[in-house]
Structure formats: C-alpha cells, structure tokens
Design goal:
With 326 residues, the protein is mostly helical. The protein is 49% helix and 3% strand. Among the domains are: 3-106, no CATH class; 111-198, no CATH class; 245-278, no CATH class. It has twelve helices and four strands, in the order ααααααααααββββαα. It has a two-stranded antiparallel ribbon with strand order 1-4. It has a two-stranded antiparallel sheet with strand order 2-3. A hairpin with a 5-residue loop joins β2 and β3 (216-218).
C-alpha cells in the first residue's frame, strides 16, 4: 500500500505533533442545554472541514458520539450506542436522523422566543454602532426573523433602541434609510465620524486659577464632555461671570444702617435679604468718587455674611427704637 493510500485512510488529527487538519476539534459536551448550540456549531465545522474522512453517515455519528462526555450526554450516547449494536441491520441510522434526535434531547425549544426577547431588550448604550449591529445580526439569526418580511418590526426595534442622536441624524437625511442594511450602514458611518471627532478633541485643559492668598492652583485635566454619542448639538455647561460691584466702606455701611437703606440696591424701605433686585447685577448708586485700588483680602462670600449680619443688627436696633418710642 502506498503512502498516499495510508494518509487518505487515516483519521484527521489536530495535535501539536502531527497537524493534518486546520480545524479545531469540538469541545467535549456534557449535556447542558445552554451549551448545545455552541457544541453543534463546532461539530458541524469540524466534520465539514474533514469531509474527505467523514464520508459516511456512520463516521459522522461516531465522531459526534465521541465528544459526548459527562452528565446526561454520556447517558444518551451510551443508550444510542447500545441500540445500534443490538440492531446491526439498522445500525446508527442516518446522520440527519441522528441530528434530529440529538436536538430533541439537548436543543432549546424556546430559542427563537428567547432571541426575540433579547433583541427587543438590546440597547446601544455605550456600545459603538458596529458592536450593536454585530449582536443584532446574531440575535436576528437565532430568532429566525427575515430582514425583509419582518422589516417593520425590526425598524421599530432599531429606532427605539439605538442612541437617539444617531436615529435623528438618519431621519433628517434627504433620503432616509428604507431597509435594514441602509440603517446599519448609515448609523455605523455617523457613529464612527462622531467618535473620530471626539478623539481629535482629546481632553480640555482647565486654566490656572489664583487663590486669595496668591498661590496658583492648576486644575487637573478633565475629559471634554461632548454629551452622548453623536449628540453634536449638546449644550456645554458654561459658567456665567459674576457681576462686578464696588465694595462699601465701613462709613458707608454705618450710614446705610442709620438711614435704613438696602445694602444691595442702596434704596430705602427694605433690607438686602428682601431686596427685589437681589439676583440682578448690583448697581452702584453712590456719587462718583476716586478710589485707590487696593488688593482685596476678603472673599465675596465673606462680604455676603457681613452684609447679612449688618442687616440683622439694623433690624434689632430698629426694633429697640420702636420699643423705646412706645
């Protein structure tokens, strides 16, 4: 017998010492229902990849039985083998019949329903559009849905589960998507463009700020918040500058207390905490005077506290005066 005949009749191996097939052997299956689909796929790839050797139904069945090991899988494999040996005329039967029996025992009858439920609960969230569509297509196959005949239902899932800025971008096109493939291509393209833009923006370096004591503090770099994916029109929170105003001298504060003027708008008839212009820009109604700028050592918050205390003192003095007059 020639070496060629010997190689053709020898079983395929995938060991490290003698690799005769590029296809990985299936993982041993112990009968757990949740792992059956994975085992079935691995087994199908292995047998089809070595079709020259597994050229009969019996060889395919024997190969499958050799990987059923542990749990209920071993029990079922032993029962099938015993029946085949007891009935030599029928033997193991056909490969198609064997596959149907194996699915009846280990297959998941609710696979399609479970896939549809999982598909309806699939949200894009932090995923890229490409990652979302990979999962979507996998569940689509498991659910046994057709992209054409089931398009309306699938479009509703895509529109309500993908990030809304992406959907709004597609809906605003002159020619919006009309099938599932177009939805996939458009959303993936827009999502990729937005993420490239985000990468170019990088991080926003915060400016230095000087404290009241004169020391300089540098805020650490923080990521530039561009909103949720593809939300290119999202508003950035901006801090409005505080209104500048002239600080009152001690003499002016005393005069305001005696005349009953408001510390905020400098009008009579109310105190600063009841001032109707409290949230507006402060206005300096005093006479124009020359002020020599001096470095401030007190913060605005401290001034606000002092002003509040002065108001309370004024109210107490007014109450005492009214009591004395009474």
């Amino acid at each position: 017998m020639s070496n060629t005949d010997t190689d053709a009749s020898s079983p395929p191996t995938n060991t490290a010492t003698s690799v005769k097939t590029p296809y990985a052997a299936p993982t041993k299956y112990d009968g757990k229902r949740e792992n059956f689909d994975t085992f079935r796929r691995q087994l199908t790839i292995y047998i089809r990849g070595n079709e020259a050797f597994f050229d009969t139904d019996e060889k395919k069945i024997l190969c499958a039985l050799s990987y059923l090991e542990g749990g209920t899988a071993s029990t079922w494999a032993n029962a099938i083998t015993d029946c085949a040996l007891a009935n030599e005329k029928e033997g193991f039967g056909t490969w198609k019949s064997f596959q149907e029996q194996m699915f009846a025992v280990f297959g998941n009858y609710t696979k399609e329903t479970d896939a549809i439920t999982e598909l309806e609960g699939l949200y894009q969230g932090k995923r890229t559009a490409h990652e979302y569509w990979l999962i979507f297509q996998s569940l689509l196959v498991k659910a046994g849905l057709n992209p054409e005949t089931d398009y309306k239902m699938l479009r509703r899932i895509v529109i309500t589960r993908m990030n809304q800025p992406l959907i709004a971008k597609c809906a605003g096109l002159e020619n919006p998507p009309t099938n599932l493939l177009q939805w996939q291509l458009k959303t993936t393209s827009f999502d990729r463009t937005w993420r490239e833009f985000n990468d170019i923006q990088g991080t926003l370096k915060r400016p230095e700020r000087t404290t009241t004591s004169g020391t300089v503090k540098t805020r650490k770099e923080e990521p530039l918040d561009l909103g949720e994916p593809m939300d290119v029109d999202a508003r950035r929170a901006t801090r409005e500058p505080r209104a500048a105003y002239m600080r009152m001298t001690e003499t002016e504060k005393t005069e305001h207390m005696r005349s009953g003027k408001c510390f905020n708008c400098h009008s009579q008839g109310h105190v600063s905490r009841d001032c109707p212009k409290k949230n507006r820009t402060r206005v300096d109604n005093r006479a124009t005077r020359t002020i020599t700028p001096t470095p401030s050592t007190a913060s605005e918050d401290k001034d606000a506290v002092i002003a509040s205390l002065m108001d309370k003192i004024a109210m107490m003095e007014k109450a005492m005066k009214e009591k004395e007059d009474f």
